[in-house]
Amino acid sequence: MINQPIKLDQIDKHILEILQANAKITNSQLATEIGLSPAPTLERVRKLENGGLIKSYHAEIDVKQMGLGTGVFVLISLSAHKKSQIMSFVDKINKIPEVIECHHITGSGDFLLKILTRDISSYQQLILNTLADIDEIGNMQSMMILSTFKESKVMPI
Questions:
Q1: What would the DSSP string read from start to end of 54-105?
Q2: What is this structure's pTM?
């Protein structure tokens, strides 16, 4: 079953833009910014949360200050494409904390992973000691992230 998109008016869209920029804003401040009183503002936010449009609120961490200076995209091709093997691969990948994103893709590979580690040596150890042990992987291609010019957590509204 495909979820139907929630119908949003301009106020709902404005709320989403504000919350994406600052999820710590108080309901009173949000109400002032969108031009409503606090009660209907809170009602609208709850509608967006209950409808599943707002999934969570969380802090964005500076990865470099956390000592995670090496980012890598890894293109994975599986050795076989049976559902059980795909699900086994996904289960194993979900248990690796350094894998921060896993996308099932089309094209020359099957999955695209985004991995964060301290340094290249740490990445090498992850490859040798963890990824190489995943039987479902047929081929891996690593692409080191040299620099990032745009990285947005803000979705276009």
A1: S----PPP-TTTTT--EEEEEEEEES---HHHHHHHHHHHTT-TTEEEEEE-
A2: 0.84
